[in-house]
Amino acid sequence: MKPASVARSSNIMPGKQSRCADSLCLIAVCALLVACDAQIDNSSSNITPPPVLLEKTGSIEAAKLIEASGLQASYSHKGDFFSHNDDGKPEVFVIGENGNDRGKMTLKPGKNKDWEDITSVPVDDGRWLVIGDIGDNGSKRKHITLHFTKEPSPGKHGRYSGRLEREHKVELTYPDGARDCEAMSYDPVSRQILLLTKRDKPARLYAIDLQTALGEKEAELKFLGTITAFRPPTVKDRAKWGGRTEWISQPTGLDISADGTEAVVISYRSLYRFHRQEGEDWITAMQRKPQEVVGPPAPQNEAVAYSVDGKSIFVTTEKLPAPVYRFQFMDKN
Asked: Model's pTM, two decimal places?
């Protein structure tokens, strides 16, 4: 694998350093990334890997968002992101790009058995959030559930609060038995909600078209294929991760850019960036080797989201303290 081209201090844009939290400036974060053997894999082509800016923008300040396992950018309020815990109360939290607390809402009716990811879909002239109650560590659940709710807006003083009305839910089954899944996103090209499993090796990609998801109370997912592109653990990984080594390459979050041309998968160890060519579906595009960046330096990365303009990728972790990181691939700018 080729080493990533990581931006140095001379490339830092004005004002970046002042936004780094806890006195951790961009060059220090980049140094951490290099120390972690940051890499981008473009071995399938002769293109020089693009440089990557990695910046810690802050930490999650919402006191009750203690296990952030999903992240989705707001389409109507730039800079706001929706997130949730992976169990407990059925609450949706809102944070800013720097992790600041923007409030929370309670989904009603709703139950949080194992919420693992969140995405956004177009409905009529607006956007609805889709909350994925899709986790299943023991692969024993009879069905998983998607909850649909209208994307909320802030109220007084710019904060989110109160009740979040559930508009619809659909219970899904797999065609080949129960699966553990922590990664879900919406593909605007195929108009499908995609689910990427965690505990299968190789990971398995499933889909349900949006029309069916919105129109039915029960449905079966469609199996699209397996993905072998996630790099297995190395000897160095085993020394660092110990008993968790077997899971560090497995998908814990998925997002697709608003224009449908890119997808990112986060794992405990790495961020993988896939490009889709015109006319391709994602199972085809994900057969090629992705660009891989090792990092960010956090213990359990499980939440990833593109900004709506597609220029930034935000990542945060389940474990406290929960830093928020921004990736910017410089070939996007």
From this structure: 0.87
